[in-house]
Write a structure and sequence with these properties.
Immunoglobulin-like; six-stranded mixed β-sheet; 1 helix; mainly beta
Length: about 325
Amino acid sequence: MKARPFLSLAIIVVLIVLVFTAFAISGGDEEESLHNVPLPSVSLGCDRVIWEKGKLELHAKTSNINDPIFTWSLDGVAVDGRERIVQSFDLGRHIVLVNVSFNDQSQSLETDKSVIVIDSIEGVSIKDFKVSNNQWGFQTMYHGKKSGVAGVIVFVNSGLPHEVDSCGHLSTEPLSASEHPWYAEYQGKVVASDSFNLKELHEAKIVKIDLGSVYTAGGTVDGRIVLMNTGSTRIEGFDIDTKIVNLKYAWMGNTAKKEFSNSYRSNLAPGENYEIPIRITIPEKIGGVRPTGKYKITVNLLLNGKTVDTKIAHTKVT
């Protein structure tokens, strides 16, 4: 991550206008939002493929369930355990099932997964796919079905090896535009190989406008604007357009808003961040008026004069 330890004068002015514009407004009632009640659920995760005889920890992950009671079975035979069990498996395909009862056992849910124990690499392969404009992904397969094959190692551009996770998934680090050869090994043997091509793309995103939702007059603002290079080429410069609107007086048009533009030089590789720190002390009064109120901040990110991303933030001074 690359951070810039200073603010240009224009950015300081932007934030001062944002927080301390001299319009005195009263804070209205907050908008209420309705949320759907989340449903209870249980999961055992992905199907797994493991090498030869061994043990595997199984975790029944529950959500929105209080005081669950777990009942496990392996190939139809009851197994003792709570939310986690450690089980030994012989060669072949096995079905693990868990039933979760709750609400004084008046309700229940169940789910299952397969665990396959193998002693041959036959049927093990890997599928590759595009994750983003600068990342590639890999997923292990067993006889054409997505399964977590533990121990598969992937090499990209003849670089360092990377092992897939427990569900057989792996994403590369951000890469530059070019053709990238890869291959995958399992038990010391190559099970797949190919190459992928990342096209040139000049792209960036505003990751966040890190400001508090509420500040107190006389206090301090300590925040940041964070950008990321989400493309596949280096970014050597960008522009930031910022508009601040006093919501109470938005109907007054230009009188109630301020707009600023700033240019920055950078050398951001794909996946790297650029931080613009925000550090300002809020005066208790401006012209005898306490600077309370609500403000809307719109930040536009421009590359080569074209807007590529926009983020909106709100803050309030009490």
